[in-house]
User: Fold this.
Amino acid sequence: MGGKTVTRADLCEAVYQKVGLSRTESADLVEMVLDEISDCLVRGESVKLSSFGSFLVRQKGERIGRNPKTGEEVPISPRRVMVFKPSNVLKQKINQALAEAE
Amino acid sequence: MIKSELVQRLAERNPHLYQRDVEHIVNAVLDEVGHALMRGDRVELRGFGAFSVKNRPSRTGRNPRTGQKVAVTEKYVPFFKTGKEMRERLNDGVDLGD
Assistant:
């Protein structure tokens, strides 16, 4: 299955190909897209991108975890985590594409 | 924030661009991530996070209400792992571990 890793450079290339901007500006814009999403989440706001998915921030309370190697109990401090909830459209597209590839 | 608001904010920061172009940029980024996942590729965005696809093999499930056996077909689910920098930023710059 796949096996390649897509990075920022590929996203910049896609923007460069589709919109008539310079490579430098394409790279800046990709960074700004990620920054706007990150800043929003850091403020505690969720980000909903239709037909792609949503990024949500969840508040986790303190819980007891266990070191899987030693079995030792360790408290896990309360924290905020970010989760990605893929849209049904994206899930369907991925399943269709990969089922056909088999 | 929804996609149109994201486009709006980016357009405000880039007054030299048409709003239509900003829309194309946002879509190009999201499409590129989506297409990579459709190929089964991984998308690694340092500082932000990484998208990948996990395979869930077919299994025999059970209807929890009736206890009846049901066949669940193989499927692929998109997965996202938050990047280190993002994890820290969500917690006032403190790295609390995984």
In short: The domain at 3-84 of chain B is CATH 4.10.520.10 (HU Protein; Chain A). Residues 19-38 of chain B form the longest helix (20 residues). Helices of chain B lie at 3-13, 19-38, 84-90.
